[in-house]
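Private note to self, pasted from the team thread so I don't lose it. Backbone tokens:
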């Protein structure tokens, strides 16, 4: 199947992660550093995330040629807050793919599954994500990847993404 027949003439997709790609999570990391981790407070603080200028600029630039899609490990119960945050910060409109509530698989598995599903009918031009493991697996599957390295990394968030399947 050629690229144009797969996409049905529609614009290619630019796929963006949220946490530490478009939204700064440093102010809510403290909820993951305590034991037990306070997931409700971690996600409740997400509406107060500051936008990350490099990621926001890239999403706006990609929207000129691509349809923007958001792919996050946030659970579905955070959808309203997530949509409100995207709108409040002037990010391009786009479909938001979220983790099902209760899905604890590693982010690299859930995100790659969705990327592959998107690629069956559309040209995925780029994935932009901060998670090195997600980026490596997506590259290995043939996707073009931009590693969003503009936010300070967090061992607690990495553990949440990969070992606990939480974000």
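Design output:
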């Amino acid at each position: 199947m050629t690229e144009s027949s797969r996409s049905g003439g529609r614009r290619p997709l630019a796929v963006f992660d949220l946490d530490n790609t478009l939204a700064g999570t440093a102010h809510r990391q403290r909820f993951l550093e305590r034991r037990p981790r306070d997931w409700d407070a971690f996600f409740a603080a997400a509406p107060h995330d500051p936008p990350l200028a490099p990621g926001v600029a890239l999403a706006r630039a990609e929207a000129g040629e691509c349809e923007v899609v958001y792919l996050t490990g946030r659970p579905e119960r955070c959808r309203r807050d997530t949509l409100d945050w995207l709108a409040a910060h002037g990010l391009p409109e786009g479909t938001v793919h979220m983790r099902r509530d209760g899905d604890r698989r590693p982010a690299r598995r859930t995100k790659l599954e969705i990327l592959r599903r998107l690629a069956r009918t559309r040209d995925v031009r780029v994935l932009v994500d901060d998670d090195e493991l997600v980026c490596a697996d997506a590259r290995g599957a043939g996707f073009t990847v931009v590693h969003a390295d503009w936010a300070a990394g967090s061992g607690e968030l990495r553990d949440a993404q990969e070992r606990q399947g939480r974000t």
